[in-house]
Amino acid sequence: MKLRRLLRPMSALATAASFAACGPADDSADRQAAGPDAREPVTVTVLVPDGDELVMSPVSDTPHKFLMFQPLVARAADGTLEPRLARSWEPSADHTSWTIHLDRNARWHDGVPVTSDDIKFTVELMSLPSVGYGQYYGVEIEVLDDSTFVWHSERNSPLGDYHSFFPKHVLEKLDPDGFYEWDFWAHPIGNGPYRYVRHLDKTLTELEAVSDYFRGRPAIDRVILIYGSGAGAIPELLASNVDVIPLNAIDVPKVEKDLRFQITYKSAFWSGWVGYGIMWNHRHPVLSDPSFRRAATLAIDRPALHSLLHLPDDLPVFDVVFTERQVSEAPEPLPYDPDAARRLLEDAGWVDADGDGVRERDGEELTFTAITDAGRGARVAVIVQARLRAVGVRMEIQTLPGPMVVWQTRVKPGDFEAAIFWWNPGVYGTFGPDSFLGYLNEDVHALLEVLQTTQNPAVVDSLYRELWPHFQADIPVTFLVPRVTLFVSDRRLRGLSSPHRGDPVWYMEDLWWEEE
Amino acid sequence: MLKYIIKRLLLSVPLVLGIVTATFFIARLAPGDPMDMYLEPQRQRQVDPEVIELMRKRYGLDQPIHVQYVTWIKNVARGDFGESFRHRRPVRDIVAEAVPYTLQLTILALLLDALFGISLGIISAVKQYTKLDKTLTVGSLIVYAIPSFWLALMLIMLFSVNLGWFPTSQTRSMNYEDLTMIGKFLDRMWHLALPVFVLGIAGAAGTARYMRNRLLEVLNEEYIVAARARGFRERTVIVKHALRNALIPIVTIYGMSLPFLLGGATIIETIFAWPGMGRLTVAAVGGRDYPIIMATTTIAALLTVFGNLLADVTYAAVDPRVSYDAPRKR
């Protein structure tokens, strides 16, 4: 009774405070079906765990920026490229230059047309040493007319969905030395589907749909970016304060059974191969044996590994590297077959003579140490360790603070036996003549040398295809978990599709809200 | 006293210098490189090495570590903490933005700590060995033992997610700009409620235990027995005689809480997305943003040293038995 008496004024105070402060109210009343008859404003709130410094930064590449600034192209649901600022594009014969035709209807939010000069201006501005952006290095823009330009570069393709461009007519008179202090970054004028409305420092950025957007007015009328924390993301979602959050795989069980939400993902496995793998050191006397690497790969149930890590069920498994056009063509990976793994090890002379569960050969135990990062790498490593143990291989795990530390302090100098870490290997650096793995295969090296000299996609595809049998025979790396970025959003937000369009922020202009 | 303060201030110079020097070298010698942000394994696009070298030069990272150190000391002496690698803005500005947020949180938490800690400690001591005392003792021990991040998450689940009484995070509501002055104040208090409670309650539990023990010690002193024998009312004995003396060490504790004001809320700021010094420091450490790491460490070192000095000086001021002046020669 006393407790209730004590709580009553607290409750009243809280209620009064919330009314007085007019805290975030349930805006579900505002959300109506985005059909032609009912055009009540639809607002989607997105939690951004990084803080506004990065979203509002001119040099950040967070997807949120693309709500206001369009790239030249974007990825369609089937993984192919579709127009954004660019209406069409043609490569030169050697693929070192691209002629880009801009959409003539594209406009800056102040009504001025987007022209080739804006592209040239942005590339030159961002290439200034004082800006230190670095991603347009070696790019030269040749303006042919207002809506056509040629992008010259031997290394940087214009067809990335991460380029953003800025209005020359607004910025050209500003002093580049004060680049980071320009007011423009606080009140940007973009060319994307959403225009800047307001920014509440450390709290939110509000954007509204551009009514005369050249690709058609987005169905989501308003997007509010809420700057929260990663730790508080799930409570924010559960409290209905936000509609979209990025999701750590470890948190999937907290929301996957909640019917209010949907989980989608964006993959990077279409771009070569990015993710966790066992990088074998080929200089190691045991790990250099391809039949050992094959046995180890056969011993690991990779689809089950994805499931244990709460990753999507439909993630593919690979044993080779490939181009984005070859995802569906890549050869069948080695299956999970522990019996075959055992047979391979026995054929190589590894037997468990003393019955301790670990095989030996010539009195030496079949054991090695895998270094990994203390995050997801450690979780992957523990599962791999159990699978290998089941076929008589002992894998010790040594954790280091992060993938970059694993790379810089141990893998790059060659001071490792095996490494499990998240890395975008870069085909040449990983498997080429200076391979940090110590991988020696002259045929592979010769193919990679040719690969270095061409950007022609057809030639690149065929070179990759020639690499596949070597990878299948050598298993230079055991690929484990592809890289994916997970999101959880309100189920009423429609139009998302994994793996290419699983990021609600990146594709907000194509989404709509549908009451159930 | 003045001589003592000057002596302590002079002694604090090498101490602060030692702390920041150690931090400087530990941060630089730790694995990882600030330019890793251009080469993160997760990053799909490569930044040209020439640009990275350029950035190294810009931030002086191409210089030998001792040269970097001397340059940093010289700049700090001029009040310049440099430019953040990550934010590309002057560190001074970034820290200046974060400090008010942290102070709001920690000052209120300290007030809550003092209010509840001292009150409950007194009640517990006065009602020694009663059910109330035992309940407060067990309760304060439990609260003291609960990790603050766990308590924060539980309170968020209860009061924000389930009951919807308080916001889950952030510093203000979406419609903050439209509110009146009073509305803005209430809105800020509403957002401060949970983080302040989590921060303050853990401190209050500790303070209550300390206050109880100290007051019980004082209540057993002979002068208290004498006061009671003279027929003073119990209330007068406790408030006028016992409490004043029992509070003296508490002053020391709060004096030493000075560093807490700017650096004591790291976890809570992270959980509640409170954009203060703690969150800034965590992000800086993760991103090897040396200028911010060094600025926050220097501030923390200075506050610790001055907090200790303040505690000692205050102790002398409130307790006539303590004197830092040299004894008079007879």
User: Over the alpha carbons, how many angstroms does the gyration radius of chain B reach?
Assistant: 25 Å
Rg calculated over all Cα atoms of chain A:
26 Å
Mean pLDDT across the residues of chain B is 85
**Share in helix of chain A:** 25-40%
| Continuous helix count of chain A | 14
- Are there runs of chain B of 5+ residues with pLDDT below 50, and where? 40-44
Largest contact between protein chains?
A-B, 62 and 63 residues
Number of helices of chain B: 13
Structural class estimated from helices and strands of chain B = mainly alpha
Task: Give the overall shape of chain A, derived from the CA principal axes.
Answer: globular
Biggest β-sheet strands, sense, barrel of chain B = none
Query: What's the total count of β strands of chain B?
Result: 0
Q: What's the shape of chain B?
A: globular
In terms of per-residue confidence, which ranges of chain A show pLDDT below 50 for 5 or more consecutive residues? 1-36
The description of the largest β-sheet of chain A is:
5 strands, mixed
- Give the terminus-to-terminus CA distance of chain A: 43 Å
Give, in order, the helices and strands of chain B. HHHHHHHHHHHHH
> Reading side by side through the largest sheet of chain A, how are the strands ordered?
17-16-18-13-19
